[in-house]
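Lecture 7 notes: from sequence to structure.

We start with a single chain of 98 residues. Read the sequence below before looking at the structure.
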Amino acid sequence: MPDYMHRAILKAYLQTAVHNPLSDEALDIYSRPWLGQIGQPAFYRQITQMDQKYTDELQGKYRIMDCPCIPIPNVGHLVQEDRPEAIVAAVLKQLADT
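Now the structure, written as tokens:
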């Protein structure tokens, strides 16, 4: 696949991981591992291996987590991009409580 086409697909894919659009700088950072002769094929191998059955196989082995969980509204998978202040606030609160 031509590099320009791969970059467009990668950009669109990465934007699905956030609630708010990623900046060009953030896109560059998150894209970097998936570029070039090694990164591009690795990206598509990862995509083709995504299957809910793998999660389903392990889900019953997870234990209940005994730690605080803070729901954060209006975020995607990359919370650090959508709401970095929420992460900092949670860490500071945890430190203050210990």
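The mean pLDDT is 93. Keep this in mind for problem set 3.
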